[in-house]
Every structure is written in C-alpha cells, then in structure tokens.
Amino acid sequence: MVKQVASQKHQSSSNKLQQSSNGVTLTNQKSISRKFVSSGSVPSQLYHRLGLAMPRWLFWVLTIVVGMTLSGLLVSSLALWTPLWSDIDRTDEEVGLGGKDQKVPLPTELWSNISQYKLTRPMNILVMGIEPVPGSVDGTPESFAGHSDTILLIRFNPSNKTIRVLSIPKDTMTAIPEKGLTKVSQANAQGGKVLAARVVSRTLSNAPIDRYIRISTSGLRRLVDQLGGVEVFVPKPMVNKDPGTRFSINLVNGWQTLNGEQAEQFVRFREPGMGDLERVQRQQALLVGLRDRLNSPTVLPKLPQIIRVMGRHFDTNLKLEEMMAIVNFTLNIERDNYQMTILPGIFSRLSQDPSSYWLDLTGRVDLLQDYAGVTIGGVSSSVKPLASLKIAIQNASRKPQLTQKVINNLKQQGFTKVYAIPDWSDNRSETKIIVQKGNREAGEQLQKILRFGQVEVSATGDLESDITIRIGKDWKDWK
Name one Pfam family in it (predicted). Predict the structure, then answer.
C-alpha cells in the first residue's frame, strides 16, 4: 500500500490559542492579519528610513503617482497589503497531514519502506539558518531564537517533478508587526518561526508555507562533518581575520572538500559591495554540493543515523513520514529539475542603510507561480525577447581569445546586451548556460541557438545578468 503525504486545502484556524503535537503555537489567523495591516504606515516608515529632505506632502504625491504608473508595483503592493496565510500555525488535522489514530512507525521501518512514501501535491517548506545566539546551548529553544542568516523557500512539486529553491536575501525590507519596515531576517528573532513564516508568506503575496525547518549554525557544521565533507568550488580567496567579528575565515581558491567549519566560513563570508547577494550565491553552491553528497551511494545508507544525530541541531514540524516522502521524491528528481534563483530586488542609493534590499517583482509573476505556488489574477508576466536579455560572458576555457569572439558571434545573431566579466578561475571542459533569474525556457532557447552547452538554473552567474555563459573548452564557432 502506498502511503501518501500531502498538504490539503487550507481551512479556517481555531479561535483559541492552542499547542500542536509538534510544539508549534497556534493562534487566530484573522486577528494576526488585522494586527499586521494596522501596525503602522509603510510609506511613513519608508520616508523616515530614506532620510528624505523633501516636504512630506511631495513625498506622498510622488508615492501615489509612482504607484499608479508602474504596473510592477501592483505585485509588490499585493505582497505588502493582502492578508497572510500559511500552515505553520494550523493543526495536522486542519491541513490534512495527520490523523488521531495513526501509528507512528520507527525510523528503521520508514527507511526500509521509503519507496512507499510519496508526495501527492506541492509542498512549500521554509528553511532558516539561524545566527549563533550568545550564551545559548545547542538544541534549546534559545538557540533557535536568533536572526535568520539564511532564508530559503523550497517548493517540492510532484505535478511537474521539480524542486525549486527561492533564496531570500536576509536584508530584504518588509513590514513586521509593531516594528514597521525592517529586514526580514529579524522576524524569527522577534516572533519565532510562526512570525517568520507569516512575514515571508506575506512578502511573497501570500505564498502557502506548509512546514518549516530551522537549523543552528553548529547544525550546519555537524551535518557537513557527518556527511564526510562537501565538495565545492571556492571562486576566490576568502580571508577575514577581524577580531571584532569573533569569526576567522581563511579559504583558498579552487575545488575543495570542506569540513563543517570551512563550510560555515564559505557561506558566512561577506565583503562590501553587493550586500548579501554574493553570500546567497555561495549558499546555493553549497546546496548543490550537499545534494550531490546526499545522493552518494556511500552516504545514502547512513541517512537514518545522520537524521538521529542531527536531531538536536534542527527545529522542524516535519513528521518522519513527510521526511521520508521528501527524501524519496528528491532521489527521483532529474538534475535539470532542481532549480534555484534569488528573490528579485534592488539596492537603493537613497537608503540610509546601503545593505537594504528592496523587493522588485516587476513583471515576475512567473517567479511567484513557479517558486512559491502563488497565482495573481489579472497580472501577466512580462516576457522579454530573447535578444534583449542581458548576457554575461565568462571565460573558463583558458583560451583568452574566445571571450571577444563569443561576444562578436552573439551580436551577429542579434543579441544587443552582451558583455564580458572577469574570467572564471576554474578550467571547465563543458560550456555552461547559467539562467540567473529562474527562467529555464530562455536558457533552453539560447542553447538551441548555440547548439551546445549545459543549461543550469541557479543564481550563481553574474548578478547583473539574465543569463551567464561560462565558456568551456567545448566552445565551437557557429553561423
């Protein structure tokens, strides 16, 4: 008999504060939404944060005019003002993920019959990496009460057999109850996993969030060590020995098998210039390394033991059956169907805080649909012609003459926004077409024109590009 794990249609929340079997606090959804909307004027918060010298009335007029003329702000407005919903604060019976008389199987029983556990509908899981909390002990509630250093929305979709990862920069500006306009990373510290889920859901136009996982920083180190290390490419030397940070980083350039401590250094290294975005890129590179490591024949048999060892470093409301269904689903996903991108946004020169990341979903309703399961009626996605996309050329072939040759060839094909970026320090045999903004179809169209190259949907290319072509030794001239 096949056991099906699925989240069902959402129902109304109970009016009483209650505690679920997995320790998630439940509360009235509508009252939270009202409190959220009435927590303060976001334009007023924006006015003060930007430190504008213009008269307030002029700021309000400009706000209204811009809001009426830019269609892309419709999506952003929906993300900021519509009511919120998620499954984090609902009982298992309400979301159809449990039953009173269910027998809880042992981990060994689950693992031996893993093929029986299947996802039957899409599931969104909010994953948060929590910054160290001074003075806390691993595994205690206090150790999960810090700011979320890493925020991912992972969508498992059995209908099209895809796993899509949306990285949310921790400096993304959003509204938090009683705090006004602030960074999304503060939500977990202010109100735990329930508030964090609500804030992320609201920021993404009411994206459903079915489950959550919080991982302590020591949890990442322990996981990587339990897996025997993870192989990643370090694109440049990373050194930070500032005693004020209490965190020393020293990584050399090149392919390396990182241990737990080095993996933490890899994802936490930050330098001025692009805010949190380059760290997000390294987080995605580490995710790919972890995925490949978890699929290793030497690691798979150890997963039940690893799950038990890692228990104290994870806080989640996932049940064992759901974990097994996700593992089974992941093991059967083709590599091309594992896709990643970054939540679109900009850095504003007007902001008092240069690291503030401002949401910009102009024309990106396709991203909300594909990566969050959100459909916004009456708003269509703006599809750019292929020839107008920004295409970055990065040489990884050790043949410097190829860079300009590729640029000239693409321009002859009608591409108007082609530019060179610094060479990739790794020597690659195969050309890679990196789809930076999540639109795999555009990458496949370019692949047909080139007639070679591997398409990869991830945000690991040039941050300013739509597509980054990383030239390998297989590059050929074409007409």
Answer: LytR_C
Ordered structural domains, the chain, with CATH: 1-381 (3.40.630.190), 386-471 (3.30.70.2390)
Query: pTM for the full model?
Result: 0.78
Residue 252 has pLDDT above 50, yes or no: yes
Which single residue is written with the structure tokens 């504008």? 52
Instruction: Give tens-digit pLDDT for 174-189.
Output: 999 878 899 999 999 9
Query: Closest by alpha carbon to 343, among 189, 147, 146, 207?
Result: 207
Nearest-5° Cα angle at 308, 225 to 193: 90
Across-strand partners of 54? none
Does residue 191 register a pLDDT over 90?
yes
Buried b (16+ CB within 10 A) or exposed e, 310-320: eebbbbbbbbb
Say if CB 431 and CB 452 are below 8 A apart.
yes
- Residue recorded with tokens 């972890």: 290
What Cα–Cα distance (Å) separates residue 311 from each residue in 45, 135, 222, 319? 40, 20, 11, 12
Question: Over the Cα atoms of the chain, what is R_g?
Answer: 23
From 234, 169, 271, 194, select the one nearest 23 (Cα to Cα). Answer: 194
pLDDT tens for each residue of 98-141: 433 444 444 555 566 778 889 999 999 999 999 988 888 888 88
User: 55-64, 239-248, 323-332: which has the highest mean pLDDT?
Assistant: 323-332
Joined tokens for residue 448 = 């047909």
Give, in order, the Cα–Cα distances in Å from 142 to each of 131, 133, 175, 307, 345.
11, 7, 24, 21, 32
> Tokens at residue 114, please?
């893993």
The CB density around residue 362, as the number of other CB atoms within 10 Å, is 16
Q: What confidence score (pLDDT) does residue 423 get?
A: 94
Give me the mean pLDDT over the 198-211 stretch: 94
d(CA 153, CA 435): 19
